[in-house]
Design goal:
By secondary structure, this protein is of the alpha/beta class. Helices cover 42% and strands 16% of the residues. The chain starts with a helix and ends in an 8-residue tail after the last helix.
């Protein structure tokens, strides 16, 4: 189904419980609703970014108290990946505060990727804009996913970022796909955008061909010193609506609760899981912002009857489930 801006806006406008019912039905059709894919995100190079993204504490243009840190060693990153695996993560994600990596930077990053793969973890990297040939280098090293978010709608994008164009992001995503990598691509809500802007973001994500395998939905963390430090809070039910609409429009994607979860109640997170979120970041820090403790996540999972989804073999089982449901012979909770 094609999701235009108008059809996505219509989904947002539906009565809340009707929207949640449809989203949950779609979710069960494609996934086991008890499975939550767990990733860990590490900042492998922190601060000093030349970009002017209004939400980002790592921009050198803003005084946010974030200390610059050079690219970590391979040993440091592998040690963090081992801790992540012991804590239940199935995917290890690496973020670097660059506009885009230099070729010499990729030498060390590709070593990291190969070493983390040897631990039995999926790998993901978010390194900024990629130039021709760089995605291929990452793929050759064994990278599974590349993250590059659209952030918001095309209409609102210029209010948040002035140092790179929307088309730059789309070009990087095209290079990632051409290299045979899986795509992790989502955005941020709560930056002062309108509901049509949230709809515009999801319509853009759904229009990617094929859609992203992983879709992180970030709730803005208002960091002092950034231009968005005083942005108005997004109403919680509107955030749940955003998750539900993403699930309906991206039925086979993993929809991830990403940044901002530290400020969410257990009840809000539970509604998001019901609405179709089935992935999250674990670990007490996401790049430079706080995240719930692993023990808190474990307690919430126990209360809700959820379990950590670990690896690609389980992803194949989810695909088998979707095929069985579509054929009418799947488990009782397909619908």
């Amino acid at each position: 189904m094609t999701h235009t801006l108008a059809t996505v806006e219509a989904l947002f406008a539906r009565p809340f419980f009707d929207l949640l019912y449809e989203a949950h039905t779609v979710h069960r059709r494609h996934f086991d609703p008890a499975d939550i894919q767990v990733s860990t995100l590490l900042s492998i190079k922190t601060g000093g970014c030349p970009e002017d993204c209004g939400y980002c504490p790592q921009s050198r243009r803003y005084d946010t108290g974030v200390a610059d840190q050079a690219l970590l060693s391979v040993d440091e990153v592998v040690a963090a990946a081992r801790r992540a695996k012991a804590g239940g993560a199935g995917r290890f994600c690496m973020g670097a505060a660059w506009r885009g990596p230099k070729d010499r930077d990729l030498d060390r990053v590709t070593e990291m990727i190969a070493a983390i793969r040897d631990l039995g973890l999926e790998t993901c990297a978010t390194l900024g804009l990629l130039r021709p040939g760089q995605a291929e280098r990452l793929a050759a090293a064994g990278l599974d996913y590349y993250n590059h978010n659209l952030d918001t709608s095309p209409a609102f994008y210029g209010d948040i970022i002035g140092t790179r164009e929307y088309e730059d992001r789309l070009a990087t995503l095209a290079r990632v796909r051409d290299a045979g990598l899986k795509v992790c691509c989502g955005g941020i809500v709560g930056m002062g955008e309108s509901r049509p802007d949230r709809a515009g973001l999801i319509a853009q994500l759904a229009a990617l061909d094929p859609p992203p395998e992983s879709v992180p939905i970030n709730l803005l963390v208002r960091v002092p010193g950034t231009p968005l430090a005083e942005a108005p809070s997004l109403e919680p039910f509107e955030f749940v609506r955003t998750i539900a609409v993403a699930r309906i429009c991206l039925p086979q994607s993993r929809v991830r609760l990403a940044a901002g979860r530290d400020g969410m109640s257990e009840e809000l997170q539970a509604l998001c899981f019901f609405a179709g979120a089935n992935s999250l970041f674990a670990g007490e820090t996401l790049l430079t912002t706080p995240n719930p403790a692993i023990t808190a996540d474990a307690a919430l999972f126990a209360k809700l009857g959820l379990r950590a989804f670990m690896n690609g073999a389980e992803e194949a089982e989810s695909g088998d489930r979707a095929a069985s449901c579509a054929a009418g012979n799947g488990p009782r909770d397909c619908a």
